[in-house]
Amino acid sequence: MESMKERFVRYTSINTRSDEASQTIPSTKRQTEFAKILVADLKEIGLSDVALHDNGYVIGHLPANTDQDVPAIGFIAHMDTADYNSEGIKPRIIENYDGKDIVLNQSLNIVSRLADFPNLKNYKGKTLVVTDGTTLLGGDDKAGIVEIMEAMKILLANPSIKHGTIYVGFGPDEEIGRGADHFDVKAFPVAYAYTVDGDKLGGLEYETFNAAAANVTLKGISVHPGSAKNTMVNCNKVAMEFDRMLPQCAVPECTENYEGFIMLLKSDTAVDHGQMSYIIRDHDRSKFEVKKDLFKLAEKVINERYGMEAIKVDLKDSYYNMYDIIKDHMDCVDHAKKAMEKAGITPDVQPVRGGTDGSKISFMGIPTPNLFTGVENLHGRHEFACLEDMEASVKTIVNIANCAL
Ligand SMILES: [Zn+2]
Fold first, then answer.
1. What are the distances in angstroms from CA 92 to CA 37, 53, 104, 123, 179?
2. Where is 317: in which H helix or E strand?
3. pTM of the full predicted structure?
4. Which residues have beta carbons under 5 A from ligand 1 (an ion)?
5. Please, are residues 45 and 58 in contact by the beta-carbon 8 Å criterion?
């Protein structure tokens, strides 16, 4: 039978990049092709009712093997990879890593240097899977997929490990923040679930940002500059004026931990029109609301100043901090901690400065914290996976499933 390492190399070699610009579900056909492979592989492993659903999710389950009244739980990972070259991924295995710079590509002189990635020194002596320097690896989140599958294989081969019903879900389009919008809770009837989509060993996450997007439309008045006095409204200047009314220190480059931010993503202005897009992030819901209110206040002040609708702000919430749901279900977090400790892993709880699929799924009624995968340097050519840490993830999943834990 195929080992986890072999399966990981096989899956990461497949291009499953999602596409922000696409309107289809999933956003790319190649994800559907990969989903079909996963359906066949989950059936081969022995899961029940494995199917590819219209929302792009592959779902199957492992029936309970105990009469004990234990809740059904789920494990979720995503099929797509980040917005980075994923054409011709060639995963390479480094056994017994020597702890030095890793030459990813000799001819192109692409090297993962310890000076740039000091985290590499933690992996001396371990087995790494790296790229050839021209693509990402896609361990985010193919590691999550193979770890869940490996854990299901172990549970099926060891009936002495007692468990309730376990649902498995592999979804599309996480990287473009869309896949979970179409998650079908009725097809995934569990008390709680875990996304297996974190990074380094021990990671356990149950706090995310609250997130919104702000689109700002500017309208000005363009006249000949020689006769513009008291007439011209220059959107190039109005845009700067508007931005200066927002908190200047609450930006990504000046914030960390639980500090929220406002980020100007794009600004495209001319004299008589313009468009700016921002993202707004905060773990704290009330501070998040205040940040959104500041946009509306700046809009009001500017429009009053110019006596016209020079600025129009459209705010749209993207996702919310899963902790607002999970705080009433901390048993699923405690259970994961216990499962890690039993596997000899020290849980490393950190707030996510971003969102996960679990942010949305938690608000749909299934509390869904996030577990580590054993992959680091995500979303680029320096991404690597550590096989021993992937095995630790498998142990964690098996322990979580084990109702006798
Ligand atoms: Zn991911």
1. 22, 33, 9, 16, 29
2. strand 311-319
3. 0.91
4. 140-141, 197
5. no
The two three-digit tokens of residue 40, written as one number: 């066949």
Is 324 an active-site residue?
A: no
Which pLDDT belongs to residue 403? 85
Where residue 57 falls (left for φ over 0; alpha for ψ -120 to 50; beta otherwise) is beta
The architecture that CATH gives domain 213-319 is: 2-Layer Sandwich (3.30)
Write out pLDDT tens, residues 96-155.
Answer: 999 999 999 999 999 999 999 999 999 999 999 999 999 999 999 999 999 999 999 999
Where in 239-324 does DSSP place strands (E)? 261-269, 273-282, 311-319
Domain boundaries, the chain: 4-207+322-401, 213-319
Read off the tokens for 180.
Answer: 């979970």
User: Would residue 243 show up in a list of annotated catalytic residues for this protein?
Assistant: no
Q: Which is catalytic among the residues 80, 147, 205, 376?
A: 80
CATH code of 4-207+322-401, in short, is: 3.40.630.10
- For residue 300, which amino acid is it? K
